[in-house]
Each structure stands twice: as C-alpha cells, then as structure tokens.
Specification:
The chain is an all-alpha fold. It has two helices and no strands. About 0% of the residues are buried.
Length: about 55
C-alpha cells in the first residue's frame, strides 16, 4: 500500500513538472515572438534557469 501511495505521489509530481515546463515554453514563446532568430537562445536560457528552481 505504501508503495502505491509513493507511486501516485511521483506521478503527480511528474505531471506538475510537465505543466510547469509547458508554461515556461509558452512564456518563452511570448517573450520571443518579436525576436524570431533569438527564440532558441531564450528558450535554452529559460529552460536552463528552470532546472535550478
């Protein structure tokens, strides 16, 4: 039973992380819409920063 609870908790955490990454991607796209060729640089920077949160 305990293992089942831990697995459910892990799944929830993974879903939250996926949602967080999706929001970061959306934010990065909004920030870089006007700077087409710098888009990749911003995405990389924001994702790298998010890893340390």
């Amino acid at each position: 039973m305990r293992r089942l609870l831990i697995t459910k908790k892990n799944d929830q955490v993974i879903k939250e992380i996926d949602e967080f990454e999706r929001r970061i991607d959306m934010l990065a796209l909004m920030l870089t819409l006007k700077r087409g060729n710098e888009k990749r640089k911003y995405l990389t920077f924001i994702k790298t920063s998010a890893r340390f949160l």
